[in-house]
Amino acid sequence: MVWALVDSFAAQARAGLGAPPFLHQHIGTEHDRHLVIGVCTHGDEVGPLPAAVALVRDLRSGALRFGGRLTVVLGNPEATRAGARALDSDLNRVFVDNPPDDREGRRARALKPVLETADLFVDLHQTGQPTTEAFYTLPYREQDACWARALAGARLWLTRPWGQAFSPGTCCADEFVRALGRPGLTLELSQKGLSPATERTATAIMRRLLALVDDDALGRRSIAAAAQTRPELSFLVTAHREPFGDPLRRLRPGLSNLQPVLADQRLSPADAPVVTSPVTGRLVFPTYPPRDEHGRVTGPLPGELFRVVAELAGHPRDVWG
């Protein structure tokens, strides 16, 4: 199923405007705004892929219209075919000045010219473990906030002060775009994998994006006005990052994103080194790397075992200025 979707996307991209493989480009005639939508930046986060294939198909057939320029990016198709998050390095961490000389590094170099021309970039991701609901994750800035609220892709926003990186020393694709002064959003839709619910959600988000950009660019309704028609988001901030440390440390099975945790609550199984949450909040990004028969992590040790987030005490513009 996934291979067929990748092949379908690639075939339609080649049949388009001569774009490189795994980039579909559409050029409308009504305005010059450039919208970039990303899927499969992590190769195994395939849930939005069917919606991307359908979007490209409907634009090519004329069933769907968009007045500006659109690029749909299948971020890491080789990893998607392999059923892996990445092959050599994490594509969503290597949009740095000097990417590594490996497959993801070369892919980042190829994508940078596309992202450099984006007026808006929306990257659709999925979480490794189940999540109770979708959430945005990016620092707070007013122009990004308008797009996030108007898009209504989630009601929760895991945010941070402007200028604070998601992972110090790295650069995600949306961070690369925001550093150029343009809005860039990352939206975590659901647990990784194909599902009808994720396809429906991604389809609705993509089509809302086209309508919002057209309305804003053509003066029908500004994105600020569109945002006011939607409820304000709820804001979460990182209260704790747990370093991975000992490769024998592990989390008990079944932990989910956004589930409540209490201070001093044990998160490890009984037969592993004790791991607790030092604060009360909600768990995000619990990590379950592959292990050998002795329980040790195989391959590179992840930087973090989990994070805990908590509600921000006020609106970001009031808390951070």
What can you see in these coordinates?
The chain is an alpha/beta fold. The protein has two domains: 2-228, Aminopeptidase (3-Layer(aba) Sandwich); 245-321, no CATH class. Helices cover 30% and strands 20% of the residues. It has an eleven-stranded mixed beta sheet with strand order 1-3-2-4-7-5-6-8-11-10-9, with helices on both faces. Helix 5 (142-151) links the parallel strand 5 (135-137) and strand 6 (156-159). Helix 2 (49-61) packs across helix 7 (196-217). The chain is globular.
Sum up the structure in keywords.
321 residues; alpha/beta; Aminopeptidase; 11-stranded mixed beta sheet; 9 helices; 11 strands; 30% helix; 20% strand; globular
In short:
The chain is of the alpha/beta class and about 325 residues long. The chain is built from 9 helices and 11 strands.
SSE inventory with pairings:
Blueprint: H1 2-14, E1 23-27, E2 34-39, H2 49-61, E3 69-74, H3 77-82, H4 103-116, E4 120-127, E5 135-137, H5 142-151, E6 156-159, H6 173-179, E7 184-191, H7 196-217, H8 223-228, E8 234-243, E9 260-261, E10 281-284, E11 304-311, H9 316-319
Parallel strand pairs: 2-3, 2-4, 4-7, 5-6, 6-8
Antiparallel strand pairs: 1-3, 5-7, 8-11, 9-10, 10-11
